[in-house]
Amino acid sequence: MTKHSGIFGGTFNPVHNGHIAGARFVQQRCKLDEVRLMPCHLPPHRATPGVSGEQRAAMVQLAIAAYPQLALERLELDKTGPSYTVDSMRLLSEREPDTRFYFIIGMDSLCYFCSWQDWQHILQYCHLLVCQRPGYSADQGDAPVLLQKYGVAGLSGLRRLRSGRILLLDNPIVDLSASGIRQQLQSGQDCSDSLDPAVLNYIQQRQLYQA
Ligand SMILES: Nc1ncnc2c1ncn2[C@@H]1O[C@H](COP(=O)(O)OP(=O)(O)OP(=O)(O)O)[C@@H](O)[C@H]1O
Ligand SMILES: O=C(O)c1ccc[n+]([C@@H]2O[C@H](COP(=O)([O-])O)[C@@H](O)[C@H]2O)c1
């Protein structure tokens, strides 16, 4: 039987409640069998994070522990070099021919999706599911052109095809970003509303994100 898997790629530096709320919402709304959070090894488009891939993955593992439909995807951590999404989705599709993949991104990522490596090919391997994020909308950057060409109005439009369509989701907005949280941690502010308690404890024990 065909499996439907969401892949939520990210730097997750650190994973926060916005990521987890988004992943849970998408899994339920799109009736996915699972959502895998896939921390990148080297982000292709930004500076190498100060916190290692293994530590970022350990925090993801802690944050998803209570949610059986969420899992950690290690594919990018186990490879060297920049983590291009097109390579990851190609590999996953080859390894799991009976799985349909849905790559999950925030609206900020859709706005510059056409600058991603070989972006048209990404759409050969999966659909895109786009979560709302504060500060970004479907009329910015690359989003209007992409939605005009590939957008569908609902889940049935996705299910008809194996890949190549984009669905905007109506998830509740969670106004959190990892960069904001890093700044708050550096200045000693309380981040207990933004992070899973086990993730916060992991950060504090290892004194991550200190000035
Ligand atoms: N609050 C949020 N709501 C919905 N999607 C989010 C949210 N935060 C991040 N995302 C999405 O999660 C994916 C991974 O994001 P990432 O790990 O870079 O976190 P971030 O909060 O965007 O980090 P930074 O502030 O460092 O850019 C991206 O597709 C991003 O758009
Ligand atoms: O493949 C690319 O060119 C590419 C460019 C920018 C971002 N991505 C992926 O998009 C996901 C979210 O990235 P980020 O920086 O918001 O954590 C993550 O899986 C990145 O590897 C991928």
Automatic annotation (TrEMBL):
The keyword Endoplasmic reticulum does not apply. Pathway: Cofactor biosynthesis; NAD(+) biosynthesis; deamido-NAD(+) from nicotinate D-ribonucleotide: step 1/1. Residues 7-183 form the Cytidyltransferase-like domain. It catalyses: nicotinate beta-D-ribonucleotide + ATP + H(+) = deamido-NAD(+) + diphosphate. InterPro entries: Cyt_trans-like, NadD/NMNAT, Rossmann-like_a/b/a_fold. One of its GO terms (biological process) is NAD+ biosynthetic process. GO terms for molecular function: ATP binding; nicotinate-nucleotide adenylyltransferase activity. The keyword Ubl conjugation does not apply. Its EC number is 2.7.7.18. Keywords: ATP-binding, NAD, Nucleotide-binding, Nucleotidyltransferase, Pyridine nucleotide biosynthesis, Transferase. Belongs to the NadD family. Catalyzes the reversible adenylation of nicotinate mononucleotide (NaMN) to nicotinic acid adenine dinucleotide (NaAD). This is Probable nicotinate-nucleotide adenylyltransferase. The lineage of its organism: Bacteria, Pseudomonadati, Pseudomonadota, Gammaproteobacteria, Chromatiales. The gene is nadD.
